[in-house]
Specification:
13% strand; 8 helices; alpha/beta; six-stranded parallel sheet; globular
Length: 253
C-alpha cells in the first residue's frame, strides 16, 4: 500500500524542467506541497501555476545551489513556508561531454559544482529537518539523489561527468548507512539517457561528433523517472525482524 503525501513537503532541485519538473507535477498530484528550486525563475513560476491550476500547492524558489548560502536559504524558505521538509529530491545536474584532452576545465568545474557540491550543500541544509520529519507521525523521510548509469559504466568522453555521478552513488551509500537507523531513507535513481534538455548544454562540435552513438539509443521520458521517484517516496516503511527473533506463532521474543 502506498503512503499518501498529503501534508508532506518535497523540495526538488533542478525543478525548472525535465525530470525535476515532471517530479514536481507527480508529487503534487499525490498531495505533496512542493518547493521548486532552480535558477530559471520564469520557468518555475509557470510550473507553479500549472500545479496550482490542478489544486496542488507549490512555491518557486530562485536559487543557485552551487552557492552554499543560497542552497541553505532555499531549504529555510521551504521550512518557513510549509513547516518542514519530508522529502528532498536532489535532481539538479549538468552533463558536459567531450574528450578530456581538449575539454575546457571550466566545464569540469561546472559539473563538480552542480552535480556534487550543490547536492552536498542542499542535503546538509535539509538533513536536520528530514531527521525531525522522520520522528513524526509518518515515521520516515526521504532523500532521493538522481544519478546516472554513467556513474557505473563510464565511457570515453564522459570522464568527469561519470566521476561526479559515481561520487553521488558513494555519498548516498555512506549517508544511507548513517541515517537509515533514524528512518531517513536514502535512494539513488540511475537512469540511462532521458529525453530532456540535458543534451543542449553539450558543445555543438562534441554533440555532432557523438551523434551516431546516440542515434539508436532508446531514450526514457522524464515522466518515467518521475514515476520511479514517486514510487520510492510513497512506498510503505517496513521494519525487518530477524527470523531468529520471532517465535513460531509469529510473536516477537
Amino acid at each position: 500500500m502506498n503512503v499518501s503525501l498529503t501534508d508532506r513537503t518535497a523540495l526538488i532541485t533542478g525543478a525548472s524542467g525535465g525530470i525535476g519538473a515532471a517530479t514536481a507535477l507527480a508529487l503534487a498530484s499525490q498531495g505533496a506541497n512542493v518547493a521548486l528550486v532552480a535558477r530559471r525563475k520564469d520557468r518555475l513560476d509557470d510550473l507553479v501555476e500549472r500545479i496550482r491550476a490542478t489544486g496542488g500547492t507549490a512555491i518557486a524558489i530562485e536559487a543557485d545551489i552551487t552557492d552554499r548560502l543560497q542552497a541553505t536559504a532555499a531549504v529555510e524558505q521551504t521550512v518557513g513556508t510549509f513547516g518542514g521538509v519530508d522529502t528532498l529530491v536532489n535532481n539538479a545536474g549538468i552533463m558536459l561531454l567531450g574528450p578530456a584532452e581538449s575539454a575546457p576545465v571550466e566545464e569540469w568545474d561546472r559539473m563538480i559544482a552542480i552535480n556534487l557540491q550543490g547536492l552536498l550543500y542542499t542535503t546538509h541544509a535539509a538533513l536536520p529537518h528530514l531527521l525531525t520529519a522522520a520522528e513524526g507521525t509518518r515515521g520516515t523521510a526521504d532523500i532521493v539523489n538522481v544519478s546516472s548509469l554513467a556513474g557505473r559504466f563510464p565511457v570515453a568522453g564522459s570522464a568527469v561527468y561519470s566521476l561526479t555521478k559515481q561520487g553521488v552513488g558513494a555519498f548516498s551509500e555512506a549517508l544511507r548507512q548513517e541515517v537509515s537507523g533514524r528512518h531517513v531513507r536514502v535512494s539513488v535513481i540511475e537512469p540511462g539517457p532521458v529525453a530532456t534538455d540535458l543534451f543542449t548544454h553539450i558543445r555543438p562540435e562534441v554533440l555532432e561528433a557523438s551523434r551516431d552513438s546516440w542515434a539508436d539509443a532508446t531514450l526514457l521520458h522524464a515522466e518515467d523517472i518521475a514515476d520511479t521517484i514517486t514510487f520510492v517516496v510513497t512506498r510503505q516503511a517496513r521494519v525487518v525482524v530477524s527470523e531468529l527473533l520471532v517465535r513460531p506463532d509469529g510473536s516477537q521474543w
